[in-house]
Amino acid sequence: MSRSLEISGSALLFVLEAVTLGTLVVFVGPAVWPPEDAAGVALVVLFALVVVGLAAVMWRSRRVEGAYLRSGYDISYDPVGDPGLAAKERWEKAVRRLPDGDDEDE
After folding, report:
1. What transmembrane ranges does the database entry give (predicted)?
2. pTM of this prediction?
């Protein structure tokens, strides 16, 4: 009997994000802390903003994964590059124009 460990994609992504933020703090943190002058304070503030921004982007990417499909944010939307996608859109537009079918000729 063999044992296996299964890790879901979301758990693996969470671990990767945590390791990324932790590594950033561990390696860059000592280089900027403690600040010695005004430039050092500005560097600490910049580093803190980068860490908070990275955490916010990681959090947001988990929350709004499919909310922006078929919009300007969907980089895979290219009807010219994918003729099947363009044909599907034309077909959907034509089907929307069809009458309901309730008033069929008898």
Report:
1. 12-33, 39-59
2. 0.49
